[in-house]
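Subgroup meeting minutes
Present: P.N., E.W., G.H.
Scribe: E.W.

1. P.N. recapped why we're keeping a running log of single-chain structure predictions: easier to compare across weeks, and new members can see raw inputs and outputs side by side.
2. G.H. added today's entry (122 aa).
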Amino acid sequence: VQLQASGGGLVQAGGSLRLSCAASGNTFSINAIGWYRQAPGKQRELVAAISSGGSTNYADSVKGRFTISRDNGKNTVFLQMSSLKPEDTAVYYCAAGTQAWSLKQTTTVAHWGQGTLVTVSS
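Output recorded in log:
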């Protein structure tokens, strides 16, 4: 499975960005797909995940501001980020796993995409 992420960039605080992640290859094996992020000097953390059944999971810090969605037909997952804050600045990584719970920790993530940088200026 290959994951191709796109959509990062520079935005002012309060603004919006949409990240996309296109999966290719053996995509039928994917159940959960979503996004992690890693800020400088910090551990990688789960931002949002969605299962094949549509169940979603969000970090408390992004609830109400970020929305994850999935286009199963196109094997693509989106992260709509609104009301962005400077503390959202990080490299965002697309991640996928074979179980609905696979993205709950980094050790059970089966596939990682390349990171895309999101910078929120104050």
